[in-house]
Amino acid sequence: MNAKTRVAALMFSLAVAAALGGHAASTEYDLPVLPPESRVMADPSTGTELLFLTTDAATDQALYYEQRSWLADGSMILFMSSRKEGGLMGYLTKSGHLVRIVTPSGGLGGATAARKGARLYACRGRDVVELSLRVRGVQGSATPIVSARERLLATLPDDARPVTALTENADGSLVALGVGRDRGRAVESVTTVVTVSTRTGKVNEIARMPARDFAGHVMFSRDDPRLVYYLRAGSFRTVLDARSGKVVFEHRRQEGEYATHHCWWKGPLITFCGGFHLPPTEDGDVKTVDVRTGEVRIVGRGNWWPRAAPSELAACNWWHSAGDEQGRWIAADNWHGDIGLFHAVTTRTYVLTRGHRTYGGGVHPEVGWDRAGRQVVFSSHKLGSVDVCVATIPQEWQDRWESEVSRPDR
Fold first, then answer.
1. What is the C-alpha to C-alpha distance for residues 340 and 322, in angstroms, rounded to an integer?
2. Could you tell me which of 57, 261, 274, 364 has the fewest CB atoms within 10 Å of its CB?
3. 132 has which bridge partners?
């Protein structure tokens, strides 16, 4: 999914949330719990264990990889659903039950799990809220009880609307998002990047630009609480100091170069895919860029040859990439729905699973990570409709990773 499509889809989900509800005081309430519908299978080409969290005919889509899908305690995996009683939902990892995460004042969008605790952040119209979740009764045969305690962090101005998902910084003191501002027909609309204090609720604008120059993708560094990036015209990524609003790094567009779908990884490193041939016959290596030095490194090779068809190149090049929070692996998908895994030290390439999309149509897998770097979550067409799928990295690969980085000659 390209940036404009992703922003449009997110704006739609947030608009639905805005229509459903308004301002609500902090309170605690139970959430609707639905029966399990999961299915387990082995990938027929790689043998990787696949757990489909959903099998409903509706479109059930994993959160974008810039957001955290797993609650920090591992109890729930967040996703979005188009089903009638859908919206923001969760999968209970111990029982397989599904949870509809909806507030008494309306639906939620733009969610991300918090870095600590069984908590998440989300938008409800112009409200930015925090939900603390509690799960009871998952050990027995009865339906579990899931309750949410809501805390209103801030309400955006009347002329503002969220246009990106939320992102939390590395020490949990701030969340950030892109905000569209309706300036009226006579004045060009603008988009701002704002932070919200998770302690005081103070909203602080750190960047402003014409709406036409903003392309979404606001994400905090996983390790440095000051650094946040976003996508704007003329730059593959612009990195800001969230305290001062000062630009500290730009991955600038260079003539003949293609780079797309960045994601913060470890320390100063941001992953992305790209090369030096433009779409629709692009090459797509998996790369990292260091925001301190500007150095680019190839971690996973793609391929390119003259007169190749776009579908042929798409089978051996990469489109979205994201690394685990331990810094061991990078995962990437391609236009055919294949998912590769790349060893961060040796750059060894593994094929984790194949065929989760048909070239030319459908949503992309857009692979995200659990907190331990042992499982990935993505959207899959393999069962017919769009479902949320979790793949477990084979233990043999994990053991090999440990042995290869611990050898004295490495």
1. 11
2. 57
3. 119, 149
Q: Using one digit for the tens of pLDDT, what is the confidence trace for 196-221?
A: 999 999 999 999 999 999 999 999 99
Secondary structure percentages of the chain, helix, strand, coil, to 5: 10, 45, 45
Q: What is the DSSP letter of 108?
A: -
**Other C-beta atoms within 10 Å of 185: how many?**
7
**Quick one: how far is CA 88 from the chain centroid?**
14
Q: Which residues contact 409 (CB under 8 A, 6 or more apart)?
A: none
Q: For residues 112 and 121, what is the distance between their CA atoms, to the nearest angstrom?
A: 6
Q: How far apart are CA 320 and CA 324, in angstroms?
A: 14
Domain boundaries, the chain: 3-19+35-406
Supply the DSSP string of 221-256, one letter for each residue.
-SS-TTEEEEEETTEEEEEEETTT--EEEEEE--TT
Tell how many helices (H) and how many strands (E) occur in the chain. Answer: 3, 32
| pLDDT reported for residue 289 | 97
Question: Cα(239)–Cα(235) distance, rounded to whole angstroms?
Answer: 10
In eight-state DSSP terms, residue 170 is: T
Neighbours of 290 (CB within 10 A): 14
Domain 3-19+35-406 in CATH 3.40.1160.10? The answer is no
Q: Which residues of the chain have pLDDT under 70?
A: 1-26, 183-187, 406-410
CB 389 within 8 A of CB 41: no
Structure tokens at 359: 């070239």
Which among 5, 228, 216, 20 is positioned nearest to 108, based on CA atoms?
A: 20
131: which 2 tokens? 């939900």
What's the confidence (pLDDT) of residue 394? 94
Contact 52, 380 (CB under 8 A): yes
How much is the CA Rg of the chain, to the nearest whole Å?
Answer: 21
Q: According to the model, what pLDDT value does residue 24 have?
A: 41
What is the pLDDT at residue 316? 94
Residue whose C-alpha is closest to residue 110's, from 198, 2, 7: 7
What's the Cα-to-Cα distance from 169 to each of 68, 161, 165, 251, rounded to whole Å?
12, 21, 13, 20
Q: Quick one: which of 145, 128, 136, 131 has its CA closest to 30?
A: 145
pTM of the model: 0.91
